[in-house]
Amino acid sequence: MPELISRQQLTREQRRQRRRGSWTDAFSRQNILSTLLTGYLPILVALLVIVLPLAWMILSSFKPPSEIVTLNPTLLPQDPTLSNYGDVARRVPLLTVLGNSIYVTLIGSTVKVLLAITTAYALVYIRVPGANLIFLGILVALMVPPEVSMLPNFLTISALGGRDTLWGIILPGLGTAFGTFLLRQHFKALPKELFEAAELDGAGHFRKLFQIAVPVSLPAIATVALVTVVNEWNSFLWPLIIIDSPEKMTLPVGLNLLQSIEAQTGSYGILMAGAVLVIVPMLIVFAALQRYIVAGLTQGAVK
């Protein structure tokens, strides 16, 4: 109320000077410089580093070789063609490797997310002996790169007869330390009254998990699911080691086969087309889940 009174008491000239002062401040050299350095410049750098190579790859996949290897390159294709995608389909069993990638990603991601949900719930709501020690082991697993365990995994899977099989790709990576950690922290923040009320109604752990914890945690679960799907889809080193025949290869490994076939500079367009085929499904998944991801990552940030 005092502020309103003081505004009413201002003369027209004073209000004009105040507006003029705000415009002057907005277009002052210091304000413009700070806006450019802290706003536009980081955005421009991010666009150059992240978006420009991606755009160049997509546009190059529609260019003939003469427009890629040239002294006068252009950003947009002058003579657009789909021949690069046709060459990829002819040189690599595209449907086979695509089907293998979808199978491995769906099965592996589903089991991973399910294990992460149940493990996180058990660590929070069930009195598991040594739960803190188990959680410490999960934290340690987060710090260790997966390449460290590749040799023991290779020996184990080979002994089980899983070499050159799709289940041999899936089995060693069924546990996700990141997903378990994220969901455990999320479950700990849920109101205990929800679960106490369910217990009064006679609900067991199965109902409390799938009728209370999972529905109210969908953004966090969607975040874990997206990270898991992307990792499974882009996984390259382990499938390359465990798979020998082209009929069992996943899409990233098949793309590597394409690279070994196409070693000439004139085949860059074919390589770009193969790379686009790898990333397009992930872009679709991200576009479908991005609002859940943002909600899951920011959940709990504001109380």
From TrEMBL:
Pfam families, A to Z: BPD_transp_1
GO cellular component: a single term: plasma membrane
Keywords of the record: Cell membrane, Membrane, Transmembrane, Transmembrane helix, Transport
GO BP: transmembrane transport
Domain named ABC transmembrane type-1: residues: 98-289
Subcellular location: Cell membrane
Domain of life the protein comes from: Bacteria
Bilayer topology: Multi-pass membrane protein
Keyword field contains Metal-binding: no
Keyword check for Transit peptide: no
Transmembrane segments: 37-59, 102-126, 133-154, 166-183, 209-230, 268-289
Family: Belongs to the binding-protein-dependent transport system permease family.
Protein's UniProt name: sn-glycerol 3-phosphate transport system permease protein
